[in-house]
Amino acid sequence: MNEIQLALLLLLVVFLPVLYLSGRRVQEGNFPDLRPILAFNALQGVTARAIETGRAVHISLGLGGITGDTTADSLAGLSVMEYLADQSAAAGVPPIVTLANPTLLPLAQDVIRRPYGTDQEEAAEAARHVRWIAPGPAAYSAGVMGVLGIEAVDANVMIGEFGDEYLLMGEAAHRKKIAHIGGASDPSVIPYVYVSADQTLMGEEMYAAGAYLKRKPWHIGSLLAQDFMRWVIALVIVALVIINTLF
Amino acid sequence: MISRTVATVVAMSVGLLVLADFFVNSDSINALGLYLVRIASIVAAFTLVLGMVNVLTVHLGKIYSRDKGWPYSWVLLGALFFTLGMGFLTGGPGSAWMQQVFEVVLFPLEATLFSLLAFFSIVAAYRAFRVKSLETGLFVTFGVIVLLGQVPIGARLWDQLPVIKDWVLEVPALAGARGILLGVALGTAATGLRVLLGIDRPYVD
User: Fold this and answer.
1) How many domains does chain A have?
2) Which of B40, B113, B200 sits opposite A142 (nearest CB)?
3) Are residues B144 and B196 in the same domain?
4) Could you identify which of A147, A213, B94, B165 might form a hypothetical disulfide with A83, taking C-beta atoms 3.0 to 4.6 angstroms apart as the criterion?
5) Residue B140 sits in the same domain as residue B200
6) CB of A140 closer than 8 Å to CB of A169
7) In this structure, is residue A6 part of a structural domain?
8) What is the average pLDDT value for chain B, to the nearest integer?
9) Residue scoring higher pLDDT (B132 or A52)
10) Burial of B171 per CB tally in 10 Å (0-12, 13-18, 19+)
């Protein structure tokens, strides 16, 4: 076992019980106070506005799929989509969902169908709002710009894995004066999110969607575990710096 | 209910086996891990067919119901079948004809689209550079320093500008990026563990 494998195994061995204990704690009713994140507040109002205007919410899940390094980003996008799909189903205005990686297509269709339960006809109609645009970033962004430009869209939510093409789509939303909520985990894309979106989810904030929007106990517990691990890692870094400096 | 349980058990077992493959140097586990990853790649390749069916359904639906912009759907479907037919008739994506499609049509179009990024960046930067708070004030200050530090005129104005630019990029910017990456790594690990332990089941919920 090399050094990286050992470090990751150590991280896993510490993280796993912390995650379990935090999750149990929240499940028993000890809900912690979560710091406000404006983007999640904005997401809670997005569907209500869409219902008022009769226009749909566009959700972009980005370029990522479920077989790569950025699967967590795609799952974060799906969490947000799950919340918006639940809200929209009650009003009968399903969101328009676009994606670039076809491995995400069945999952996204499943998420949008779920709120309709046994109503197969409504569920099938909603699933038609999930669109695979193209696998490449240029073609995907061109397709999304087309959706934002041509179709009646009230809000643009872009959460997932993105590259430079984020700015093309973000600016298309801005030109149409559409409310725009964006999230990315790649530090080189975050500036594009910052300059084009009205509300932003930067880095790890993206993964907190289940905790903030759906109040899922295990998701809140995992936020507590992440905080604990961040402190552990920061203290280890400081300790190693001191040891390296002194010895 | 049974299908949910089976799906969860299969997903958890496969996830744990592939994780074990990363940590354990055993020939049998490595071979099994590789086999499972190959199966996943084949299944992922088949989703491309699902994607194509989705494209057909969406655009035929648009044409049928005369939605806004429906003529573009004809163009898209025409291009799809033209490229598909050409691929079949000329010997696949490696053939000279298909290479021409990529080099003469696709790559120039992609380059054109991405060249727009330069203009979009300027417009977005102009919007972001309006000082409205202390945060945007700092954003503008460091933005101007890095911008001037990158171009020859910056060094002519003040020879310390490139040095300050390097410091900004290598110390505060890098520290910030590493902080973000640390948070992302923890978030990714938490998401992965939740799926691995069957707490989150995006495949059956």
Assistant:
1) 2
2) B113
3) yes
4) A213
5) yes
6) no
7) no
8) 88
9) A52
10) exposed
Distance between CA atoms of residues A59 and A52, nearest Å:
18
> Cα–Cα distances in Å, from A217 out to A69, B99, B144?
26, 52, 45
**Nearest chain A Cα distance for residue B6, angstroms:** 18
Farthest CA pair distance, chain A: 71
How many Å apart are CA B110 and CA A53, to the nearest integer?
Answer: 35
What angle is formed at CA A62 by the lines to CA A59 and CA A63, rounded to 5 degrees? Answer: 155
Type of residue found at A136: G
Model ipTM value: 0.90
Q: Does A185 touch chain B (CB under 8 A)?
A: yes
Of the candidates A212, A180, A206, A189, the residue with the CA atom closest to the CA atom of residue A71? A206
Q: Is B120 part of a structural domain of the chain?
A: no
For B124-163, b/e burial (b = at least 16 CB within 10 A) is: beeeeeeeeeeeeeebeebbebbebbeeeebbeeeeebbe
CATH of the domain at A115: 3.40.50
**CA-nearest residue of chain A to B38?**
A67
On whether both B3 and B84 belong to a single domain, the answer is yes
B125, pLDDT greater than 90:
no
Angle between helices A71-91 and A105-113 (to 10 degrees): 30
